[in-house]
Specification:
Layout (H helix, E strand, L loop, with lengths): L30 H4 L1 H12 L18 E7 L2 E6 L2 E5 L10 E2 L15 E3 L10 H6 L6 E4 L4 H6 L4 E4 L5 E4 L2 E7 L7 E7 L2 E5 L7 H10 L5 E5 L4 E2 L2 E2 L4 H11 L3 E5 L3 E2 L5 E2 L4 H12 L15 E4 L2
This protein binds zinc ion.
Zinc ion binds next to loops.
């Protein structure tokens, strides 16, 4: 331990030409040590991170042919009244990335589900802690190829791996896996029940040919969930920008579109997102066709949209 200056005595003299100021006289610090301040700053922000959960908000069932309730970011309850489906539940974010908005519904306030849909294995869509916490392990879980064994190991008994363009069923709803563009294998899904068609795009990047292909098979889409966050992590684009999502809207022409996948935050500059992405998406849709502005349904966390045929 270094000796401390004696109280009242002269302070120790440290001259600029002292050895500690000469890098060449010191062993070069390893990268982890040089990055320590950044790591500590990140750690501090992670340690403080906790999403707000509005525990008092309850789920209100509806008699609509289709209801969609946004929980947070890209988590949602899809409600074909007799068949409720939980989409990409995300209650245990992995720092440094987390939701930038409060949770709209707590896990314990969710209505009874018939199934869970998982689009792909990214933390904000495939949240292993939430899946383990979810109490009912007898419902059907639909995942892209390669995730089935992991979900079964959590205790789920009815797990279906869906290849793109293959079909399965949750309760009364037909589920078709459709392509999505992501750095890992991802499924989009088309859900059909009550004579209503809902397209869940996941957090796909823009691919005009892919959207034309999906639109060719499903020419009438009543509602769509489109990612609009314009999110980049480590420079990699993760979903569509609001402008690209408006291009996708122009190709698929859903009757209604709910923007999602914009409630994510993380440490700058590793994470870059678009501010007010949902409003920019609505403006971009309206710029192409003002009459389409009303097709865009913006849902705050916990808010529901109800569709009647
Ligand atoms: Zn995502």
């Amino acid at each position: 331990m270094n000796s401390l200056p004696v109280a009242g005595g002269p302070p120790p003299v440290v001259r600029f030409d002292s050895p500690q100021f000469h890098r060449k006289n010191h062993p070069r610090m390893p990268p982890t040590v040089r990055l320590l301040p950044l790591i500590i700053a990140l750690g501090a922000s992670l340690g403080c991170y906790a999403p707000t959960v509005q525990r008092t908000r309850t789920y209100h069932p509806s008699d609509a042919d289709l209801s969609v309730t946004r929980i947070v970011h890209s988590s949602a309850v899809i409600d074909f009244p007799e068949t409720k489906i939980l989409l990409d539940p995300w209650y245990n974010p992995t720092p440094p990335f987390g939701p930038s908005e409060p949770m709209g519904l707590s896990l314990e306030n969710l209505p009874p589900m018939r199934g869970i849909l998982i689009t792909h294995k990214h933390d904000d869509h495939f949240d292993a802690d939430t899946l383990r916490d979810y109490p009912n392990k007898s419902l059907r879980v639909i995942v892209p190829p390669g995730l089935g064994a992991q979900v079964r190991a959590m205790g789920y008994q009815d797990v279906v791996e869906l290849e793109q363009w293959d079909r399965s069923q949750i309760g009364s709803v037909i589920v078709t896996a459709v392509p999505a563009r992501q750095s890992v294998l991802e499924n989009g899904y088309v859900l059909q029940g009550n004579s209503v068609t809902l397209y869940v795009a996941g957090d796909t990047r823009f691919d005009g040919q892919m959207f034309r292909e999906i639109g060719g098979l499903f020419p009438t889409i009543d509602a769509a969930l489109f990612p609009v966050g314009g999110i980049r992590i480590f420079g990699e684009q993760l979903d569509m920008s609001p402008e690209e999502a408006a291009d996708a809207f122009a190709i698929l022409k859903p009757q209604h579109v709910i923007p999602y996948h914009y409630g994510l935050t993380g440490p700058m500059p590793l994470f870059l997102g678009t501010s007010d992405a949902e409003k920019k998406f609505q403006d971009a849709v309206a710029k192409r066709d003002e009459t389409a502005r009303k097709a865009v349904v913006i849902l705050e966390p916990g808010a529901s949209w109800h569709h009647y045929r």
